Please model this.
Amino acid sequence: MYILGLTTLGDAAATLVADGEVVAAVEEERFSRQKHHAGFPFRSVEYCLAEAGIKIGEVDHVSLYWKPWVLGHKAVQALRALAVSRDRFKARADGVSGVSRSYLGMLGYSRLIREHFGASDFRFHYLEHHQCHAASAFFVSPFETAAILTMDGTGEATTTLTAVGEGNDFRPLKRIKLPHSLGQFYSAVTNFLGFDMYEGDEWKVMGLAAYGEPEYKDFFSSVLRTRGPDGFRLDWRVLDHHLAKNYQFPDELTRVLGAPRQAGEEITERHRNIAASAQVVLEDVVLHLLRALHRRTGEANLCLAGGVAFNSVMNGRILRESPHRAATSWSRPTSGPRSTRRSARPLSRRPTFPSRPSPTTSSCLAWRVFSPTGPSWAGSRAAWSSGPGPSGTGASSPTPGAPTCANC
Ligand SMILES: [Fe+2]
Model:
C-alpha cells in the first residue's frame, strides 16, 4: 500500500510511505530554493514517486494535513475583534481572506494531482492539523503508550491538543482553540522585540531570554494565564498576534513594556528581560498542561509536537520538572537533507537516540487511518536501544522557535 502525505501551507513537502516504510521524504524548498516554500509540492511528489519507481496510479491514498473547510471559528474570532476595534477586525479579516484563498486551492488538490501526474484511483483525505502533529510524534516514537501534547500557533481552529496514544492509535482528550494560543503568544513577543515571526525568529527570543531576568513575569502571567486544572487563556486584547504581524501593538502593552524594538535597533537589558519573562511564562503554562495530562492519563511517557515544542529551553525544563518519566519531541518533522536524519528531536532520558527518517505529519496520520497494523519502525526501535548515543547519531539540539506552520 502506497500512501502519499502532503504539506502545502508553508515548508511544503511530500512523503511516500510503502507498506509501513518511508521510501522518500523531501521539502519543496530543496528544489525551488525558496525558503519555507508554500504551495503544492509538485517536485517533491515527483521525487517521491521516482524514488519508489512508481507512477501516481499505484498510490492508494493521498493525505493533507488540513481540513480547509473549517473556517467558521476564525470568522467568529474576526467578528469578536470588531467589537474591540476596526484595526483588530481588519488584521483578522485580512488573514482569513488570505488563507481562504489557500484553503480553496486545497479543495482542488485531488484533481490537480491527476491533471499533473496522470490518472489514479487514489482516495484523497483531509486530516485535522493537530491530529497530524500528534501522529507525527507518537507513531514514530519508541513508546507503545504515551501522553501526547501538541502546541502551535493554530491549526484549523485548535491551537493545543492533548491525547493519549496506544499501539497504532491515539485518542484526543482536549482541544484548546483560538484565540488562546501558545504559539501566537510567543510570535507576538518575537515581533515586539523587532524580529520576524515569518522567518521563524522565535528562536532568537528563546536565545535572548538566557541573558535576561524575568522582570516582566507578572505582567506576562496576566496576559497568558492558566485556566482551570488543564487549560490556559491568552488575553489577545493586550498581546494581539494579528496586530503584531504588522508590528502594531496596543497601548496596554507598550505602557508596561515600553516601545517595541525596531529591527536592527540595539538590544538592551529591557529587551533581554522581556524575552526572559515571556519564556518563563510559556514554560509555566506548558508545565501546568503537562501535570494535568499526567494526572488524567497516568502515562509515564510523553510525546510533544507542534511548533512550540521546538523550544528546547522549555523542553529542558519539562525534562527536569514534568512528572513524565520519558519524553520525546518530534517537532514539526521535516524531510530535507538537513533534517532527514536529525529531525527526530528526542528529549528522552534514555541514553541513546534513534536515527531514522521523519515522515511529514500527514503521512503519519494517514498511516493511522489506513493501516491495520500501524507503522513498522522495528529497525528504528532497534537503533533506539542500541545506537551509539547522542553524540554519534546526529541528534542535535532541537531547533528552537515557536510556530512553524504558515498559519500557525
Ligand atoms: Fe502546526
Notes: Residues 129, 133, 152, 155, 306-307, 405, 408 surround fe (ii) ion (CB under 6 Å). Residues 194 and 324 are 36 Å apart (CA to CA).
